[in-house]
Structure prediction request, 340 residues.
Amino acid sequence: MKKYQVRTDLVIDSIDSLNDKNILVKKDMIGNILVTSVLVKEEYETKLNKKRGRYTTIEFDDVTDFNNRNKVIKVFSTYLKKLLKELNINDNSTALIVGLGNEHSSPDALGPKTVDNIIVTSHLFKLNKNAVDEGFRCVSAFNPGVMGITGIETLDLIKNVVNTVKPDFVIVIDALAASSISRVNKTIQMTDSGIHPGSGVGNSRKEISKEILGIPVIAVGIPTVVDAVTIVSDTIQYMIKHFSYTEANINNPANKLSIKKTNYLKKEVKELDIENKKKYIGLLGELTDEEIHSLIYEVLSPIDYNLMVTPKEVDFLIDKLSETLSKGINSVLHKKVNNT
Prediction:
């Protein structure tokens, strides 16, 4: 079977599939929020298919709940502030916020909707710098649209704005793709390595990074889509986990009813051996996770059924996710802004 190239923009997806213990990974639990910090060195760029740099990933359960959303905003703003410090960006450094994506397509509207709620102040500084209260920095923002609508390469637009506005650093916001259904709309990734817009869905545009623009570029994204191969593969893995749990617990009278609870699939379960896997799912039981991905890819791709999929409530989720990012960014860039 041909090797299946996983569609993902998330470094933690790539690390999970590579399973190399030498990669520098640090995990922190803040309440029920998992923060994973990864330093990708030059020797791992090819293996991970990710550019060298710092990556911070924040995984959470839900942002539609007000209290949960405020917790995520607080964690996001804390780590964004930390990243700015590591890049030697001070409180007086001027910023340009760029919202990548198509505002007319719900799963791709994360960037534009986030920028719509950014507190911009650059015009106030130009009118009368002394009239701006202390605690607000000079911030500009814009949405460049997508090449299919403008006919202009996104990088070219950003380069021209950077040359005109002359910010000290850029924050780029974009919707991403994931290789796990559990991370869709439940993960924030930020990195100082820049971004290739559209790379996760096979529509890669020119790189936006420090090497190209000449100033620090922080990319912030949330996966909002996943491909059909991943959905089918994950479903098979959840089936195996279900059978593993059943095999281990169904004969215990105390666990007779627990099989009806959905959260057991989120727990660590000792996986079945190959013979028992074959008993439940036949020949698929002999395949590794990567081989299952490859098989499904080879089945769906020739008939154009490897669709990119997003949840049905994506409009509502994008509103809440963009609010999470905009509030976090505003509180970091402007000291006087409360992040809740």
Notes: Residues 230-309 form one domain. The beta strands are 24-30, 33-40, 53-59, 95-100, 139-145, 169-178, 187-191, 217-227, 308-309. The chain has a mean pLDDT of 86.
